[in-house]
Amino acid sequence: MTESSAARPLVSDPTLRFLTRGAVAVGSLCTAVWLWGCWCGFPAIPWNDIRVAPAVALHRGISAFSTASAGPLSTWTYGPVPILLLWPAGFASGAAGAVQVAGIIHIITTIAAFALVAFGWPTAAGRDGTMGVRFGAALLCVLLVRNPTSGFLVFCADAPGIAFGLGSLLALARGDRWTAAVCAAAAAGCKQTMVDVGLAEFVWLWVAGSPRDAIHHLARCAAAGLVLAAASVALFGGAAFWYTAVVLPGRFPSAPWLPRLLDHGPYLLAHVGLPVLIMSMMRRRIFRRDSPYLLPALAFLVTLPLGFAGLLKVGGNVNSLHSFWLWFPPTLVVFAADARSGRFGRLVAPGLALLTAAVSSCWLVTSRLPARPNLRAYDDAARLTQLFPQRIWFPLHPLITLYSDGRLYHDLDGMTVRRIAGVPVSDEQFFSGMPAHREVCAMLLPVGWAVTDIRLARLPAGSTTRVFGVFQLDGVFKDTEPNR
Prior knowledge:
This protein is mainly α. The protein contains 22 helices and four strands.
């Protein structure tokens, strides 16, 4: 064997480029089809209706923020930014259209955040990743946002919070500190516990820069936050905004911590345990003042306590853990750029491309998502609002009557929030947030009502149950009214 043949790679560069392009094409196509299925399934999940309703209500001049004794009992106990983000959904002509527009905004916002980080995050000098590597990193991040309480199928305030948090870290890493401060304030304006994004940046500047830089940045974040708070008070009212965003969430009790952690054990191992393990193995490379890994690592560590605080509240879930998604996208970009400069650098782009093709194909096969928008509930609801004008209440679909009656009624999650917080609701407040002549409640099957929910709904005496399409109806019916 000659010296030149011994040094020749097993796979030529043209072959690798062909494989990479093919895998990227497959991964991109499968991801696009999967995202289409997520959007088609978005209207079928009632929690999306509940969370989009405050934005459409604001479009009509109605505030979802309420005080202890007045206003609609809404699911919304978060900041105002997601409502403003989804506000264009109010231009839709009907409830189904509004949910679909909100789904588009949600998906595009999440993808845009990952793309900006993947293509814009600075790497070590001389170790810049190619466009192919950065595209693969962005695609992999998009594919891994998949869990039952958030992801692309379900909208929650955490999603835009993570998007703004990533935008803030990216701006700070690129030296644009005012943009970083504004985005950090916007992240906190999505979910209150994301106030720690600005704190993480303060810590990074203190370590990698100087105490003076850190204090100045904290002042910028505070100024941006005060402007956002003042605008929120002007838009929603001071008492209602304070009660909904601060007082009510502060009353949520803690859940038993061990059962909660055990319930989410696999998720916590992947999203908390794995990053901690990686950081401990790479600590000499990460925890240096000039390390491109340092900012996302500190963002992970600083935001972890409040994430666990949210998880361990009654009603909390894993969507409260933002640390992984503030750490993983920039870390992946830096690591891929480092690996590309190493011994097997020519295999990084093909490896990422093949991985995204494999994951996207798996999601496409296993997700069982619809190929067309699932609007069955909205079609049946449209008929019900005609059969029961001003007489029917949809506890999980406030958007429907927001369009038919022009009012934002209580939703079941908002009522549950008050119950969890131990805040009693008077008959006056309860019935003021119901249809004027409410006789019937329509609950999406197969959920139905539990005994406690029936009491919570204060249904009329002598209520019976019927089924209409995908809804279970509870209330008082005339003989000619639906029973099928």
